[in-house]
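Rotation project, supervised by the postdoc (A.L.). Task for the rotation student: set up a whole-complex structure prediction and record inputs and outputs verbatim in this book. Inputs entered:
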Amino acid sequence: MFASCADPASLEGLQWLMCYLTSGTHLLFYASFGTVLLLLAITAPIALLFGFGGAMASRSRIAPLRWFGQVYTSMVRGIPDIIFFLFVPIALDQGLEYLRHKILCDSNQSVWQGNDFVVCAAAKLPLSTSPQWVHQAYGFGTAVVAFAIVFGAFAANVLYGAMNAVPRAQLETAEAYGMSPRQVTRRVLIPQMWTYAIPGLSNLWMILIKATPLLFLLGVEDIVYWARELGGTKTAAFSYPHPDWRLYYFLAILVFYLLMTWGSQRIIDRLTRRLSRGQATMGGEALRKVGA
Amino acid sequence: MKLVCAQEITDYGLRAIGIGERLLPRSDYDLCQQFVLIGSGLIWNLYYGILALTIGFFIANAVAVAKASRHAWLRLPAEGFIFLFRGSPLFIQFFLVYEALVLLPRAGIPIFGFTVATDWLTKAWAGALLVLVLNTAAYSAQIFHGALMAVPKGDLEAADAYGMTGWKRFRRVVWPTMMRLAWPAYTNEAIFLFHATTLVFFSSFPAFRQQGDALYYASYFADKTFNPFVAYPIAAFYFILLTLLLISLFGVVNRRLNRHLPGAQKRIRYRPQLIR
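Outputs recorded:
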């Protein structure tokens, strides 16, 4: 990065460290923190949407839709999330490739040849001729879907609970005013459920933050990947030889996550205070007493 | 009539702990093999889950009481411990501890003329267990601390009126109520811990001679057959059974803890992970 770093062998002490920490691969390492934040930023709203859909489906009057919603919300109760993280990206990839194989290729040929899953070159996802960034974006995309499905199920649990926690009397009053079921949902149920959902959702946000290193298992070049890559022993063949420093890289990642969760907790505490203002709950009552 | 999967059970039933066929299946990959081998891997999940939960329970009690202490030298370390292990991902903790244990001198550490062996610590059965114990201790300590703070004042005053103090008051009044209040959340924690044991062989801890847990074998089959639709659902099936078993076991304890209260027969409502 700096002109003075042109010949690493001649460097000493602090200058060596500065040049080392600004080398090209290190810049990729720093950028991968952005990958984590991007995953959080994309996954959180999608998961919330999935969760909302799941919660509404479990309350539906149409039986098959309700069963679907209930299976979706309860699947994460018994099955470890890691199984989903391993299963969903492969299943999604195979499903898409299978469909493309049916459409784009000579569909007489089965995709199953012995124990191998083979599709023709035109059906490959992404195409083997595509540039590197397409492969990376595709890998990241399947990871986002896996995260959204799993955390959507968690969010559905929270929102379903929150919808049930809205006092019956509120909904009955709305009905007494002559609102249709749809109006009751939109005007009374949804605005009121958020106070009850916030503790669960904020907890979920913390769990989501702590689940992001699993990106590594999905083959995305995230912070864990780079920490292992950069920290491993570098022999004299490299420009910056050093012994096994993986411990220090993982310590840096640990500090990053501690800061993330600590900061989130502070914001959540504020938000909770804000939302309990004027509510007929214990928190709201405490705020009222302080104000009075 | 041939017994169901008899051959596979003798070959692979205890494969995960090194008994039986040495080589993993390399062709066919029929349902019997997958069911038996993944089930065999469940031994490791049970090993980690049961031991971590048992050891972690005692540490968590100590940490929870320390966190409620008036003395800063007790409270601050407890708070730091809980913050460290609850604030960072388990996955990173596995990596970090493994890298730290690898850095210990291979030959052992000499203390007073004896040499303390260190190489066993980098093995999954010890190193990963250590991480899981500390992790669950931190989460459980937070739960227990919350319950300790929620012990009704009247109970303490009643204990005072009976002349109970110190250890006796804690043992007879505070602790049983704390357990009773914490139990539903602790059930969730136990279930989450068993689910978290699947991470062990996907973090840096190596599976010695391919002796891994249920998910390790499931992903082995999924990789070999290019078919995730068989092996992962089998693993999921085992974990659903395990979860149901845990819920019923913890339910028995819960009923015992609540036996003096009206409505004690009420079941614990399991809300997954969301209480963590």
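Student's summary: The longest helix of chain A spans residues 24-58.
Supervisor addendum: The two ends of chain A are 59 Å apart (CA to CA).
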